[in-house]
Structures are given as structure tokens and as C-alpha cells.
Amino acid sequence: MILIVDVCSDRLSYFEFVKPVEDIIKKARVNSVTSHFLSLNHRDISRAERVIICGTALKDFGYLESMEKFTWIKEVDKPVLGICAGMQILGKLYGCNLLERTKIGRYRVKIVRKNSLTSKDEFYSYFLNSKAVEPGEDFETLGESGNLRCMFGHKHKRFYGCLFHPEVLNPEIITNFVQQPTPNV
Amino acid sequence: MRVGVLFSGGKDSCLALQKSMNFHDVVCLVSLISESQESYMFHVPNIEVTGRQAEAVGLPIVQRRTKGKKERELEDLKKAIGKAKADFDLDGIVTGAVKSVYQSTRVQKICKRLDLWCFDPLWLKDEIELLKEVVQSGYEVIISGVFAFPLNQEFLGRKLDLDMIRKLERLKQEYGLSPAGEGGELETTVTDAPFFKRRLEILDYDVSYKDYSGVFRIKDVRLMHK
């Protein structure tokens, strides 16, 4: 079972940032449950095999004001994929700096370190962010877009972040994350 | 939150409007009236009818004409959204974008520059699900433009119902046609929906068509009590 974490402050944003991820997982015939980060319960966390933290609207930073609601992530031994805001949350949990970087639209991503989220060396992806993450010492960069480090992985835990929105142009990244039988990426 | 909805009068913008009404205070509609039949951004057939649709819904509408030239129309859109923000004290904009990264990128950038929230409640929605939701919610929708093979004159003015959805689904399988017209293959006009206070009755129209490209142009409508 996949736990999808909704971080949208505004309920209308669910349809744009969470529902598409749910649809990709459903199409892959994998069970999932969605919880908003403010109402997440321990049962959902303990039942989950993997966790996806979705993105939210460009003007929404409510999740950064409630970082104490995400400390459970550091305690779980499960693969976690953070998308955009989700990547920022993973970074913040490990003390990474957030940078003011706006990138909106379709841009090329170059894979700089092989990983099992994608088999491609380069691809186009859709960006919608006004902040980026400086990976810091706990993470290694997996992908770049221009000089923006847009994909990272934790050096010791199975935590991955995509600053872009794979649900738009790269659904295989989400499918790969939820379907891989072996958790080592 | 006070929001304005980018409104073309077609099924997508109407469904986006209905969804936003469930969560926010929709205070106006915003329409760009493109003079180009090949607008990159905006729905063209019957865009002139949006004023009457706004009356039917009971919302004010901010309209602005644009030549429909590629990036110039974005400046016009920014001006229209800026005016709506100033006149109606908007916090955000809602669009009916479903698949177009081109459209979504540009509206997101405009909203960022104007410090507005941007919502795309239909984003990446399955096209058949979208069409069924429209029909099953009680919308009255006609096909008002066809722009791709094998959509011919017979589709123009036809009502969107479950039979038509099945037909469009078959065309998707046979020809790869986007059933909801997300690649610009077809356009629609909504004449009634659950949130319309009055419905539109078409009094006069004409049809122009050639080589799988045609428009059902509404020339005159009246608003009817429901």
C-alpha cells in the first residue's frame, strides 16, 4: 500500500497536485491511501510500504510553516518520494537550504547519477516551483536542469526528491517508484 | 478566497467553474475574445456568447479583445487578469486546463507576476471521465467546432451525450483523436449547467465547414427561465 501525502493548504489544489498521482498509481494497479499531512494518523504510516509526498500550488507554503508535522518521515524505514514541495520537505528535514528559484514550464532534465526511478539519460519534465533545494551533505544529486539540481536521493535512506512534477510528463517515475520489487534505488 | 475563472464558455471552463464554486467565492469570469481562428491559447467558436453565458450564470465578466498572435495574446490575457484582480479584488484565478503544458505554463507565469493563486482543477483528468462528468452532471453542451479528421460537418451542433461520448471514444481508438478535444480537435459551447440560473436557447446560427474544419456559430440566443 502506498501512502500519498497531500500537503495542499487549499482543497481546490488537491485536484491538480494529488489526484493525478492517485490516478497513475491506480492505473499501475497498486493500492494507495491519501491523507492530508495535518490529519495523518499512525495507522496509515505503519501500513504503508512506500510514501509519496505530493506538490502544491506555487503560492502555497503552508507546509513549511508546519514542519513538525513531518518529523515522522525521519523515523520510518520506507522508501519516500517527494515531489516539488515534497522534495523541499525532505530537504528541510535534513537541514538543507531552500533557495528562491522560480522555474515554470517544460524543461530538459539530465540524469547525472544512474538510479532506478528512470532508465533515461535525459528527458523533458514540467516544473512549477518558486523554491529549490540545495542538497547538502545527506543527499546526492541525481538529476539537473540547467544549473538547477532537480532530483536527489538520500545517501543512506531510500528517500528521493523530484523538484519537477513527474505526474505531468514522466508518469513512469511514479510507476517505477511504486512498482519496484527491490527498494534499493 | 475570491477567485475569477478564465471562461471560454466551453465544457472545460464550465466544469472548472463549478468545481471552484464548491470551495471558493467565484466573483467574476474573464474572457479573451480572440480575432484569430488559430489562437494558441483561447477557445474561439462562440466566444462572443460568453457575455450571455455570464448573464445566465449570474456573474460579471471581464472581456478583452486580442488579435490572437502567439505571445501578444498573453500580454492581453495579463491585462485582462490584472483588470479583474483590480476590479474584483481577486486572490486567485481558476482555469479549465486539462493537458496543455503550453497553456498552463503561461497562465501560471502570469499569476506569479500578478501575485495570484492559480488553480487548474481539471489538470490531467482522464478525458472520458471528464466528458461523462459533464453529461452526468446535467450540462447541455453542443459541439461548436471541429478541426481534425474524421470529425465532419455532422458533428457540428450535435449535443454531447453518452452516445456521442462512445462515438468519440471509438474515434480515439481508431484515429488517436483526443475525445475531449484537448489537442484542439473539437470545441464545445455550454448552453445550460446546474449552476446556470437561466439556460440559453439558440435562436439563430450558421455553419461553415470545409475539409474537416468547421464552426457552428451562434448568431442569436435568448435566456430562458429554468
Molecular structure report:
The complex is a heterodimer of chains A (185) and B (226). The relative contact order of chain A is 0.17. Chain A has one domain (2-179): Class I glutamine amidotransferase (GATase) domain (Rossmann fold), CATH 3.40.50.880. Chain A is built from seven helices and nine strands. Chain A has helices at residues 14-17, 19-27, 42-47, 72-75, 85-93, 166-169, 171-179; strands at residues 2-6, 32-36, 50-53, 80-83, 97-111, 122-134, 139-145, 148-154, 159-162. Chain A is globular. Chain A is an alpha/beta fold and 185 residues long. In chain A, strands 2-1-3-4-9-8-7-5-6 form a nine-stranded mixed β-sheet, sandwiched between helices. With 226 residues, chain B is α/β, with parallel strands linked by helices. Chain B has two domains: 2-119, HUPs (Rossmann fold, 3-Layer(aba) Sandwich); 127-225, putative n-type atp pyrophosphatase, domain 2 (Alpha-Beta Complex), CATH 3.90.1490. In chain B, 32% of the residues lie in helices and 30% in strands. Chain B is built from six helices and nine strands, in the order βαβαβαβαβαβαβββ. Chain B has helices spanning 11-21, 50-57, 72-88, 101-113, 127-136, 162-175; strands at 2-6, 25-34, 61-66, 92-94, 117-119, 140-146, 186-192, 198-210, 213-225. Chain B has a five-stranded parallel β-sheet with strand order 3-2-1-4-5, with helices on both faces. A four-stranded antiparallel β-sheet of chain B has the order 7-6-9-8. In chain B, strand 2, helix 2 and strand 3 (61-66) form a beta-alpha-beta unit. The mean pLDDT of chain B is 93. The chains are: A alpha/beta (185), B alpha/beta (226). Chain A binds chain B through residues 10-13, 15-16, 19-20, 23, 57-60, 102, 104-106, 126, 128, 130, 167-169, and chain B through 1, 19-20, 23-24, 94, 101, 105, 108-109, 111-112, 115-126.
